[in-house]
């Protein structure tokens, strides 16, 4: 037979106090003149009885449900961007909140259904996330309450959390300059669509800007720039072969993401060239593949867990409307060395 759930009245009776006094203690409300010993009796009684507060009743009183909606396109089922959810889950748990997660797979009708279902549950706010850093259209339904964009921006200038891609561009360029590379640095992964369409990517143009600004400040420019129709290994392979076919072989290559670098490694190996003895390689994202390449790939890591955490903090604290840029740390692995003589 199921055991009856303990009530606040049961806790108060066990502690020898009024129901009002017990409620004030359990809810941490200021102004009680109860002794420390009385507080301890209330907490002990609650633990002994297995008391759990009535969340529904508390929600009616406080207009808070301690729940957050996390709506994404394909973050949840993507291993690479799963850190966004991990960081948000950790931050929500630390703040005694529960995350309700829905992934739309780009289905507009399901997205509307999922959002309405979450709003019907009176969530305290919505985190609207994208796997690829881009500008997006925000569903009007979530604009009536607290909302934070994660890995995205919007025309409404909502609070958003983004990776600091421009600073990462400066970081990877600086890493090569510090090793002595100057006039023979090539770039692999130029893509006009990613660079010109914010709805496709915000990362490409920001990374490129950081690279160029850093090289310019050092009095140099890129030796060559190879275009890729997409940022996938096969395109990195073809672009690297194209670079090697030109006169004046680069001493280092910056790849716009790790998958391109994977393809570049294959092309270099086929050409009988070693990383980093013959050509240094540095990249962006810190995809799991970066640690499996030999030698390990130096890359500016996307800080997805920190981004997810910051999104929850901003949503609950509501202290900023400016974009929050989270640094991308450089994973210094063995793919960078001084130029060959």
UniProtKB/TrEMBL annotation:
Top-level taxonomic group: Bacteria
GO terms for MF: DNA binding
Cross-referenced InterPro entries: HTH_LacI (IPR000843), LacI/GalR-like_sensor (IPR046335), Lambda_DNA-bd_dom_sf (IPR010982), Peripla_BP_I (IPR028082)
Segments traversing the membrane: none
The name this protein goes by in its record: LacI family DNA-binding transcriptional regulator
Domain HTH lacI-type span(s) in chain numbering: 6-62
Keywords: DNA-binding, Repressor, Transcription, Transcription regulation
Pfam family, one: LacI
Lineage: Bacteria, Bacillati, Actinomycetota, Actinomycetes, Micromonosporales
